[in-house]
Amino acid sequence: MMRLPCCFTTRAALSSSVKTDTYSGSKKQKSSSFYTHPSLLEMKNEKAANRVRVYEFLRGIGIVPDELDGLELPVTVEVMRERVDFLHKLGLTIEDINNYPLVLGCSVKKNMIPVLDYLGKLGVRKSTLTDFLLRYPQVLHASVVVDLAPVVKYLQGMDIKPKLYSASTGEIS
């Protein structure tokens, strides 16, 4: 069996550097690691600063973010811009978004696209999609698997057939 020399004293000296806090006089362990973990307070402060930037972006384009305080929002302005741009492509205006700002809490990839694909499979036409979303914007919050598909399956089991949404009357016929 071969013994490898190991210097525990050097390793211990590097990892146990002690720094004294000049304000409290307490001793704090200083890590010699190249990777430092951010503190929970730093993470909380960073999240708050990101939220301020997202709110500033929204105010800058005319969206009032007052109702969004309890909502989980994107961390970056870029992701929020992606959501706003996607809603614009669907035909929604800033005024429409202000009427239902909670739609900004929906992920484009996880919520909006799957819901829109499912609505298309049910027969909602692209030409009527904007009017449908103006009338029922909360549908973008729905989960296809958890909310929409079970209801549609139940209704189909009762021999209720899906009918097409009419943009001219605003009714499902």
Could you walk me through the main structural features you see in this protein, from its secondary elements to its overall organization?
The strands form two sheets. The chain has a two-stranded antiparallel sheet with strand order 1-2. Strands 3-4 form a two-stranded antiparallel sheet. The longest helix is centred in the N-terminal third of the chain and has 21 residues. The termini are far apart. It has two domains: 66 residues; 68 residues, no CATH class. With 173 residues, it is mainly α. About 7% of the residues have low confidence. The protein has seven helices and four strands; from the N terminus they run H-E-E-H-H-H-H-H-H-E-E. It is 50% helix and 7% strand. InterPro entries: MTERF, MTERF_sf.
Form type: globular
Low-confidence runs: 7-18
Largest sheet: 2 strands, antiparallel
Computed CA radius of gyration, to the nearest angstrom: 27 Å
Total discrete domains: 2
On the 0-100 scale, what is the average pLDDT? 78
Order of helices and strands: HEEHHHHHHEE
- What portion of residues is helical? 40-55%
How many helices? The count is 7
- Spatial separation of the terminal alpha carbons: 84 Å
E-strand count: 4
Task: Provide the fold topology.
Elements: H1 8-15, E1 17-20, E2 27-30, H2 40-60, H3 77-89, H4 94-99, H5 108-122, H6 126-135, H7 144-157, E3 165-166, E4 171-172
Antiparallel strand pairs: 1-2, 3-4
